[in-house]
Design a protein that fits this description.
It contains ten helices and seven strands. By secondary structure, the protein is an alpha+beta fold. Helix 7 packs antiparallel against helix 9 and helix 9 packs antiparallel against helix 10.
Length: about 500
């Protein structure tokens, strides 16, 4: 018996010490260690890529650029991104949701810190049964009452504190997701504008190819009329012209769809889409900051959101543990009551009450322990989610770097092909002017040049868009001071 009593006293002392010391009832929520790669991709990234005139340099360790789209040196593009950040309705919706979440957090914290006080006024007229052997069979009376009540729950084991921590971490995660949405919107505007400019140039060059093909077909038709060429050559030329013409509608459809998408991203109606940029006037950013992996963990919104989710799970596990311990509440009330208004407002009508209650869960069918085990598993799942998010971020950067490296090689080859074909075309033009070759030779040279130019345009657009993807992959907030890295909150 003495041993049992001693155990109860020890348990009570432990509970009191936990309450007074504020010991944590769950994990700290610190992010687990993750491997730090020596370099992002399978092969080390070269410091410089691309030919002269389209060269890019990766600066390892340099802080990411917040408003990176300004590196394209296009005032129109920068203005479009700013307009989208101000007027995009999906982004505004996310911002309103974040503001609402912050207000919910503020309300929950204030409610847990202060007692609740309510005022209640009541008046009623009632008819009740009288005693069966005394007085009239029924009683008719009025009741007037007014009361102020207050109650407060002492947060002995951190139920309210952990609930507040969980909600605060949820707000943090939502704020990081909002920041990621802003960065994604900026990248989408840049990529969509680049693709629209590329498609516009492709449409113009394809229209010229169609015109050249029509001219070839007409010339062959005139020569066939005098028997200089067979009719099959005319049919082949006409088929080639129609094949080129058939590619135009799809190309134009893609072009207009890009313009419509850009207008909607900017918060405009599709018919108010801005004029296309000149893809040849866009400057390829020469210096691309490349954050080291340790910095990437502190500035990518998706990693920061996963870290906040880990803290949510830690607070929820602690909350599930705290709910297994006692809770203490006090309540008090004071008011006036009576069966008539004069009596209810007089000194004789004063009523009051004060009390305290302590609740210790004893048996809930195993629900409390099950909820705690579920919270523990959720925390472990959050750790796995964080680690996977980090790996995905490393992969995103690695893929972007590899894509840019190969984009540079592709653009270099496309530019060389365009240069050679252009020189061939110019030579054919000069020889045609001298009468050394027929005009069809100049048109053939121009066709070869236009096809090479189309390849160069596509390669240029791909490199410009992939550069935007890499800037986005760095993850720094677009509102961060220049050269600053976000710290985990």
């Amino acid at each position: 018996m003495r041993t049992h009593e001693s155990f109860k006293l020890q348990r009570l002392a432990m509970l009191v010490m936990l309450a007074l010391s504020g010991c944590a009832l769950g994990p700290t929520g610190d992010a687990p260690a993750v491997p730090q790669p020596s370099h992002y991709a399978v092969e080390p990234t070269p410091d410089t890529i691309g030919p002269d005139g389209a060269r890019q340099q990766f600066v390892l360790g340099q802080r990411a650029v917040p408003q990176w789209w300004q590196a394209y040196a296009s005032p129109e593009l920068s203005a479009w991104v700013d307009e989208a950040l101000k007027h995009n309705h999906s982004l505004a919706q996310a911002e309103r949701s974040l503001a609402g979440a912050k207000e919910q957090l503020r309300g929950q914290i204030n409610e847990s810190l202060w007692p609740t006080i309510d005022a209640v006024g009541q008046t009623s007229r009632q008819r009740a049964l009288g005693l069966p052997t005394m007085g009239p069979p029924t009683n008719l009376y009025n009741v007037f009452s007014g009361e102020i009540s207050a109650s407060y729950t002492f947060d002995l084991f951190g139920v309210e504190r952990y609930a507040n921590s969980a909600l605060a971490a949820q707000v943090d995660a939502q704020s990081y997701q909002f920041d990621a949405a802003r960065r994604t919107l900026a990248a989408n505007v840049v990529i969509t504008a680049v693709n629209a400019a590329s498609l516009r140039a492709q449409v113009m060059h394809t229209e010229r190819l169609v015109a050249l093909a029509d001219t070839d077909a007409e010339e062959l038709q005139r020569r066939a009329a005098i028997g200089a060429v067979p009719a099959d050559d005319v049919l082949a030329a006409q088929a080639n012209a129609q094949s080129l013409r058939a590619s135009l509608p799809g190309l134009k459809s893609q072009w207009q769809a890009m313009r419509h998408a850009l207008a909607v991203l900017m918060g405009r109606t599709p018919d108010a889409a801005p004029d296309d940029l000149d893809i040849a006037a866009l400057r390829l950013p020469e210096h691309v900051p490349l954050s080291v992996p340790s910095d990437l963990l502190r500035q990518r919104p998706d990693i920061l959101a996963a870290d906040a989710a880990l803290k949510v799970a830690a607070a929820q596990e602690a909350l599930a543990t705290a709910e297994m311990f006692p809770s203490l509440s006090i309540n008090a009330s004071f008011g006036q009551s009576g069966f008539s208004w004069p009596k209810a407002t007089g000194a004789a009508g004063a009523v009051w009450g004060i009390g305290a209650s302590i609740t210790q869960p004893i048996f809930h069918g195993g629900a409390l322990r099950a909820r705690r085990r579920a919270a523990q598993e959720a925390y472990l799942a959050s750790e796995d989610n964080y680690q996977q998010t980090v790996l995905n971020a490393f992969q995103n950067v690695a893929d972007s770097l590899v894509a840019l490296t190969h984009d540079a090689d592709a653009l270099q080859a496309a530019s060389a092909a365009r240069g050679h074909s252009e020189q061939t075309w110019r030579n054919a033009q000069r020889r045609t002017a001298l009468g050394a070759v027929p005009p069809s030779a100049a048109r053939a040279g121009e066709r070869q040049y236009l096809n090479a130019r189309l390849g160069e345009i596509r390669a240029t657009a791909t490199r410009l868009a992939d550069t935007a993807t890499l800037f986005q992959a760095m993850g720094v907030s677009i509102d961060a001071p220049e050269g600053a890295v976000q710290e985990k909150r």
